């Protein structure tokens, strides 16, 4: 089940991330993590030059991206240990905004200390909120939206990010219905 859930979530997230892009205005496309810093290697399948400066981004395969997604995002946020709809939201946030931030938003929504590390206290708080799944997911997404709307790149990428965030609950419900 967990592998199947990961594969379904991966298909959704990688679909949002898309193929190769070397948009100069995107700080993630630069090996230094800022526009004009380092080398413009681009992003492919959501794997960015900023996060993975040693990878040949243009040559990255879908299978290679899937292995990275599982190891560096899905497993690190313990997405398989949270309710199915939340797993997609948490995983997508980890890929798009970073593992520590995704966990902090989860912790904020759960009402526990925001240390950016998934531990027993965070997982217990999430489990305790199981009965208010929609409200909990909305609280998580609200934390993420506030952060993203404050980014200086919101003017360039905000409409696409907003579409992505607004679509996630529908994908999450579909995955939950298949489980």
Can you identify the CATH class of the largest domain? Mainly Alpha
CATH level-4 homologous superfamily of the largest domain: Chitosanase, subunit A, domain 1
Number of strands: 2
Arithmetic mean of pLDDT: 92
Q: Can you tell me the CATH architecture of the largest domain? A: Up-down Bundle
The rounded Rg comes to 16 Å
Structural class: mainly alpha
Q: Specify the overall morphology.
A: globular
Number of domains: 2
Provide the succession of SSEs: HEEHHHHHH
Largest sheet: 2 strands, antiparallel
Strand order of the largest sheet: 1-2
Strand content: under 5%
What topology emerges from the helices and strands here?
Elements (H helix, E strand, L loop, with lengths): L1 H16 L25 E2 L2 E2 L13 H13 L9 H14 L1 H12 L9 H9 L4 H17 L4 H25 L1
Antiparallel strand pairs: 1-2
What does this structure look like?
It is a single chain. The protein starts with a helix and ends with a helix. Strands 1-2 form a two-stranded antiparallel ribbon. It is 59% helix and 2% strand. It has seven helices and two strands, in the order H-E-E-H-H-H-H-H-H. By secondary structure, the chain is mainly α. It folds into two domains: 1-75, no CATH class; 82-179, Chitosanase, subunit A, domain 1, CATH 1.20.141.10. The longest helix has 25 residues, at 154-178.
């Amino acid at each position: 089940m967990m592998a199947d859930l990961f594969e379904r979530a991966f298909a959704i997230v990688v679909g949002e991330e898309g193929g190769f892009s070397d948009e100069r205005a995107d700080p993630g496309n630069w090996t230094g993590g800022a526009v004009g810093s380092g080398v413009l290697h681009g992003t492919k399948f959501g794997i960015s030059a900023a996060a993975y400066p040693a990878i040949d981004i243009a040559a990255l395969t879908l299978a290679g991206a899937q292995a990275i997604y599982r190891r560096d995002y899905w497993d690190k946020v313990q997405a398989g240990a949270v309710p199915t709809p939340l797993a997609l939201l948490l995983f997508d946030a980890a890929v798009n905004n970073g593992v520590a931030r995704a966990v902090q938003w989860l912790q904020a929504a759960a009402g526990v200390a925001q240390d950016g590390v998934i531990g027993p206290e965070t997982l217990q708080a999430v489990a305790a909120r199981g009965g208010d799944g929609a409200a909990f997911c909305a609280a998580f997404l609200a934390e993420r939206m506030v952060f993203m709307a404050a980014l200086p790149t919101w003017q360039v990428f905000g409409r696409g990010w907003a579409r992505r965030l607004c679509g996630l609950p529908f994908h999450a419900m579909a995955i939950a219905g298949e489980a």
